[in-house]
DNA sequence: GTCAACCATATTGTATACAAGAATTAGATT
DNA sequence: AATCTAATTCTTGTATACAATATGGTTGAC
């Protein structure tokens, strides 16, 4: 069962939510969306469930599907968990990472450096995603890697937005290099701390995140 | 949308999978189960999706829904993540826990002690669940608490089974007391380490887990 | 005798029809 | 005039009918 029509619809809906077409609290009309996508309500409802499980929609019985964007508190909580998950990945990866993966990390970082000097946020984020993804994989724990990637995807729009702040790309860049050095030296705790601090929302990052929220809300 | 008929069916199916009625790799027949539950295929398929998202089923397009029990490797991976999540909860809870919650932890522990002397595994596990749940809550991060509880539930049947091994309940008990002491003293790292070791599968626990798997498989 | 291809059957995915519940509006009463 | 109630309408939840695909068996050919 579960072919992929529901999946493609789920992806499109996800994009529509991320790009702001539907705002927090909006109710999604089944029949309207169904004819808009040219399908019946059945696969659309399946897509709703996908999105509900990943937290983007709230399904209220007999009421409908409502867009559910995380508020400031929940967002900070999610970033705290993300920081800890990345820290664990780093701690494990420091002991288990392969030479080939290290080379890939260095390559991703040099691509990042190019993007920084060009001021290309999109290119930077794309390479940044590869960087983190490699570390998830190299934790040697595919369940952990999956969970980390899932949360990363959920926070992606916010992380991307953060990079637009002045000087933030450069800071992120130098943190990346610090992370690679810790991994190269197999220093587990150093890698964990570096990743935790890289992701955690604290200090100036907190205010920047709050500013981002105000703009979208 | 999403009333709770699909949810009750999902719970019942979950129980059927846990109690061994359906084994790993079994295909669940939509029409048979639908008439068995006295509903149509529609809500049943919704239940399938719930279970698939929580990892108990694998939905293969045009093929059907197959029971998917984690193998030894995945199980170890999940326990590793669980240990780290609990460690984070403990680290945060050590700084944020309330006096009332500490009292509840002590009470849960004394109920545990009663169960240990009575050799009552079910009673012990019930109180054990409360113990861990309190720590999740007291992390002060409800997103983290939710994620921890989700994984805890997924691993529940295995954790329960582990307690049946000789001496294991007593060991778990003394680890609980050590955890409470660390939390009382607000020793964040000590609490984290105690919880990680309490949950992690290593040493003799590894062989016990493998033995459990052989029995169910 | 074995392998391959085709047909029949069964099962999943999708659409539509039907039923039940919630919300809104209009009407009546205070 | 305002509020409460009732009825209508709209929307969700469920069932069933239909279509498309995969699977298994049978038959034919090499």
Automatic annotation (TrEMBL), chains A, B:
Gene3D superfamilies according to UniProt: GntR ligand-binding domain-like, Winged helix-like DNA-binding domain superfamily/Winged helix DNA-binding domain
Pfam families hit by this protein: FCD, GntR
This protein's record includes keyword Oxidoreductase: no
Keywords: DNA-binding, Transcription, Transcription regulation
Molecular function in Gene Ontology: DNA binding; DNA-binding transcription factor activity
Limits of the HTH gntR-type domain: 3-70
Database matches in PANTHER family: TRANSCRIPTIONAL REGULATOR, GNTR FAMILY (PTHR43537), TRANSCRIPTIONAL REGULATORY PROTEIN (PTHR43537:SF49)
Name used for this protein in its record: GntR family transcriptional regulator
Provenance organism: Tritonibacter scottomollicae (Epibacterium scottomollicae)
């Amino acid at each position: 069962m579960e072919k992929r029509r529901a999946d493609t619809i789920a992806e499109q809906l996800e994009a529509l939510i991320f790009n702001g077409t539907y705002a927090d609290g909006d109710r999604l009309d089944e029949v309207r969306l169904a004819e808009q996508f040219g399908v019946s309500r059945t696969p659309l409802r399946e897509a709703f469930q996908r999105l509900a499980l990943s937290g983007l929609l709230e399904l209220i019985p007999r009421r409908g599907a409502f867009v559910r964007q995380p508020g400031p508190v929940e967002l900070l909580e999610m970033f705290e968990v993300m920081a800890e998950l990345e820290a664990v990945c780093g701690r494990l990866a420091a002991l288990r990472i392969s030479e080939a993966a290290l080379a890939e990390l260095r390559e991703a970082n040099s691509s990042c450096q190019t993007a920084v000097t060009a001021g290309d946020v999109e290119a930077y984020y794309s390479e940044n995603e590869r960087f983190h993804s490699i570390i998830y994989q190299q934790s040697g724990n595919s369940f952990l890697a999956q969970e980390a990637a899932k949360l990363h995807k959920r926070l992606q729009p916010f992380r991307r937005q953060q990079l637009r702040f002045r000087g933030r790309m450069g800071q992120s860049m130098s943190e990346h290099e610090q992370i690679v050095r810790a991994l190269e030296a197999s220093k587990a705790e150093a890698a964990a701390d570096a990743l935790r601090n890289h992701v955690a929302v604290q200090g100036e990052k907190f205010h920047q995140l709050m500013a981002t929220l105000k703009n979208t809300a």
